[in-house]
Amino acid sequence: MGDWFQPGDMAPESSSLKSTYGWKLSYHARQQAARRGIDRRSVLATVADPDITYPQKGNVIMKKGMLALVTDPDHRIVITVLLAGAKPWNDADCRAAFAS
């Protein structure tokens, strides 16, 4: 179904990400993150410490900064990754927003 996040996936200074161990990215989430230029660290940081969470259609939306995740926390799965915001966007806008 997706990659498991294990200890050692992140640098030692990422102790705040320990709560993300066992979370998976669905195949779709991995594809969309790659297309949109969103790295694993950003996804994990959002799961570990979202600014906002709210239920939607049986899932939970987690937002941190410009990143929004659709998640299934009961099964510890990130379903997809999106650029948070009210105005329409495309993959190129997302890549630009997350460019290092």
Instruction: Count the beta strands.
Output: 5
Q: Strand order within the widest sheet?
A: 1-5-4-3-2
What is the rounded distance between the termini? 28 Å
- The assigned structural class equals alpha+beta
H-E string: EHHEEEEH
Determine the number of helices (DSSP H or I, runs of at least 4 residues).
3
Helix content: 25-40%
Give the overall pLDDT as a whole number. Answer: 82
Shape: globular
The whole-angstrom Rg is 13 Å
Strand content range: 25-35%
* Stretches with pLDDT under 50, minimum 5 residues: 1-15
Q: Biggest sheet, open or closed, and with what strands and sense? A: 5 strands, mixed
Write the layout of secondary structure elements.
Elements: E1 24-25, H1 27-36, H2 40-48, E2 52-56, E3 59-64, E4 67-72, E5 77-83, H3 91-98
Parallel strand pairs: 1-5
Antiparallel strand pairs: 2-3, 3-4, 4-5
Features:
100 residues, alpha+beta, five-stranded mixed sheet, globular
Question: How does this model look, in words?
Answer:
The protein contains three helices and five strands; from the N terminus they run βααββββα. With 100 residues, the chain is of the alpha+beta class. A five-stranded mixed β-sheet has the order 1-5-4-3-2. A hairpin with a 2-residue loop joins β3 (59-64) and β4 (67-72). The termini are far apart. Mean pLDDT is 82; it is low at 1-15.
